[in-house]
Amino acid sequence: MKTRDLPLNIWLGGTITVFFLLCSATALFWTPFDPNFVDTTKLSLGFGESGHLLGTDVIGRDLFSGLLAGARMSVFLGCVTAAISVVLGTIFAFIAVGISPWVDEVVMRLLDVLMAVPGVIVALVIATVTGPSAISTVSVLSVFFAPVIARVVRSATLPILNEDFVQSARMYGRGTFFVLFRHVLPNILSILVVQFSLYTANAVLAESGLSYLGVGISRPQISWGTLLKEAQETAGPTTGLMLWPATVILIFVLGLNLLGDGLRDVLDPRSMGRRS
Amino acid sequence: MIIFLARRFGFFVISVLATSGLIFLLVRLLGGSPASVLLGEFSTPEDVLALEKQLGLHRPLLVQYGEWMAELLRGDFGASFYSGIELTTLLKSALPVSVSLSVGALLVGLVIGIPFGIASALRSFQGKGSLVDFISQIGIALPIFWSGAVLSIIFGVSLGWFPTGGWVPWSDAPATTLRHLVLPSVTLGIGIGSVLARFVRTAIVEVMRQDFVRTGRAFGMSVQQSLFVVGLRNAALPVVTVLGNIVSHLVGGTVLTETLFSMPGLSRMILGAVVGRDIFVVQNLVVLLVFYVLVVNLIVDVSYYLLDKRLRI
Amino acid sequence: MKPILQVRDLWVSNGRLTAVRGVSLDVFPGQKLGLVGESGAGKSMFGLAIMDLLPFGWAAKGSAILGDTDLVAMSEKEHCEVRGRRVAMVFQDSLSALDPMKRIGWHFRRIVSRASADQAARWQDVSVEILTHLGVENAAAALRKYPHQLSGGQRQRILIGMAVATKSELIIADEPTTSVDTAIQRNVLDTLTAATKKLGASLILVTHDLALVSNYCDTVAVMYGGHLVESGPTSEVLGKSRHPYTGALINSNISLPRVMEQQVKTLPVIPGTMPSLESMPTGCAFRLRCDRASSVCEEIPPVTTSDGRTLRCWNPK
Asked: Which of A4, A86, B244, C126 has the most crowded CB, counting CB atoms within 10 A?
């Protein structure tokens, strides 16, 4: 398939994603100002004043640098969460499918219960007990994303297990887990990639939400969510201080969704079901 | 039929026990004892021990769990460790706020989602493209803090039509309360409406592909007629199931929306308790919320079962 | 006699695949035409095209003149008028064809009221009468039931009843006995043909079963790979077939009993399978499996007509 034929989704989504990845990478080494540097001489500056591209917040910290630093953290956490969720989900699915129908039933029911509960809520409990942190955020989110991914992986795995080449492998005495890893996994790789992309978006949204509420990341570590929280608490929700991080999150999430949907259409539109 | 209902209810009971048990364990086993959480960083080990004795935390876990469940069933949700105010009192003022928001958002979501979904399905079935589809895809991705901020800026600050925060109880001035509800409900409702629109569209298109729709047309029904007479009734089934899912999202979204618009609802209560490390308040409130979600899912599943005549032989 | 349906050069395709290729045939009043072919030959699509109920993405070209109106050229609105009034269809799978959330009576009420306004008030009596004639026991109770509560045979009769209630001039039955137990297949067909005759309508029976055609149809049209390869009066076509495919089809159909009686040693089989829509050969669709094929068969043979029979073959028998 020529690159020219790739759908708009992938172009747009891919460009956005790559752009953000570049920003995060840059932020690892350099930001215009130290995002945590409090400069009381330059409070609440506006657009482009005094060399601050997007102004400063109420205690004089540069917003643009904050956004870059936030990108570093949010993108990283998003990817890690998505990766863990995909791995966990796949493991759950394989366990369910590979051992016995009884185990399948039990595991799926367990996951049903997990899915019925809003993860945000449980995150709150954990945050209370252990104190908000990056690790607790990532863990909670992964645990709540994994069941949904497990479902997707399971429904993709079942038809493959019924294929002829799998049956013949089993006839030769190969164990189920061998079959799962050696034969099924390569075939569902495209599905996993799509899920990874989509769930990075979900993770970024969720982490931003949690940090916004105060149970995620907090200073001196910066994520987009902490910027939102500070904006809410200081200048209020109707200022640029809030709008900038929110818009940045929106664009990144949209880009990832477009990329994920586009990849899904390109890689295997039929077996992954309709775009819904 | 009885068998199904019994099984489903059994699943419900197990879910409640499992999730409450999980939360119970999380509270007691994660990160040290609840007593140290309550007392904070500057507590001494002796203080912690004393509090643990006082709260009965040294007793067997099963006993504690049983007692806790009994209290909840009695309606005793405990009190704040610091202020001593009973939860039920706090809930009386916070619950109406959150419930109003939920209902408002659900209404907005239904009003947006269902017509959009139907229109989109009709166009899709007749082979035309759908702008609505694209719009709803964006609508789903809109973070609440973004749409809330934008709506506040446009309708709250620039145009000044609606207040951008705060709350007035219903009993005081219902008209003002309504005005306070508009922006938050619309913000939350957009996300819900988009999900619903997408889902309604897919459900209807699925139904329209069915053979019995073709039969309707074979005997003279137009496409529109078959949609409304046959399609909707049959599409209602899968849509009912997604409503349960939506409610789950609603809970999370309500928390964000209430924070954004400074509404004194349930989320402020919970967040305050979280920040203040008021662990048992958090525990009880969370279990309450989870219970509510599970109940809604139960109702949805049973309704689906009752509606789908095929399942009831 | 003027035909009630004149199909000329009908093509059905979805832009990528073509299911029906240049089929022309006539249906006369009171005629019972058997449209025969294996699965994938295009016969179902032909029927659906007449009713304009093709699946999403498929379209028909050519002309199909019912009486004096061209069905292919109609708008959707005009089609709604024709469907269930002048042409009716009996579908193959009676369970999926009926709305699971509606009682049987709901369908009949609509259809009977639509067929004639003065019968509308008496729709229940009319429906019960039709269904009882068709052999549905306790028809009044059946009207109140849901599709899944009835047996396959009853449902099929109900579908036939619905078609008959429309008082149409033409009834198209798409494999009406495929999802019915073999034991009652004959029964259902007896019912269908008797009802059609009573109505004075014509019948197009779409099927893969030659035996049914030989027993119930006065005319037969054989389809292969989207083409209409042979047609004519049943006794003549089946007795003395001209197209190689028809001959092979007849052979494989009647041989099973003869093998059982050991008159024939092996079951004659047509080597190969019908090409899928994606891999249709150019020219005559049957040439890759035909033992009479020659180089000229790479061109689509034209339709030749002689004494009431049509044929599409370069090398007929």
From this structure: A86
Q: Is the pTM here over 0.80, yes or no?
A: no
H-only helix segments in A162-239: 164-171, 176-179, 185-213, 224-234
Confidence bin at C39 (pLDDT 50/70/90): confident
Nearest residue of B to residue A121, measured between CA atoms: B286
Q: Which amino acid is at B249?
A: H
What per-residue confidence (pLDDT) applies to A3? 52
Report CA-CA distances (Å) from C42 to C11, C23, C35, C152, C176: 10, 10, 10, 25, 16
* Nearest partner of C274 among C46, C40, C42, judged by Cα: C40
- Quote ipTM for the complex: 0.81
Alpha carbons B306 and B240: distance in angstroms, whole number: 11
3-state secondary structure of A117: coil
| Cβ-nearest to C146 among B219, B233, B309 | B309
Q: Is C245 exposed, middle or buried (0-12, 13-18, 19+ CB in 10 A)?
A: buried
Chain B neighbours, 3+ Cβ pairs < 8 A: A, C
Confidence check: pLDDT of B132 > 70: no
- C-alpha closest to that of C163 among C104, C112, C216: C112
**How far is residue C152's CA from residue C150's CA, in Å, rounded to a whole number?**
7
- B255/A128 Cβ within 8 A: no
Exposure letters B259-276 (e unless 16+ CB within 10 A, then b): bbbbbbbbbbbbbebbeb
What is the least distance, in Å, from the CA of B207 to any CA of chain A?
14
Reference A254, options A186, A192, A208, A202; nearest CA is A202
pLDDT above 90: percentage of residues in chain C: 21
The whole-angstrom separation of Cα B246 and Cα B243 is 5
Give which of C104, C103, C126, C128 is closest to C115, Cα–Cα: C126
**CB distance C84–B220 less than 8 Å?**
yes
- Provide the pLDDT confidence category of residue A50 given band limits of 50, 70 and 90: low
Interface contact flag, A238 B153, Cβ < 8 Å: yes
| B27 contacts on A by Cβ (under 8 Å) | 125, 129
Q: What is the interface size between B and C, counted as CB pairs within 8 Å?
A: 66
Query: C91 vs B214: CB contact, 8 Å cut-off?
Result: yes
Q: Please give the full DSSP string across C263-289, using - where no structure is assigned.
A: SSSS----SS-PPPGGGPPSS-TTTTT
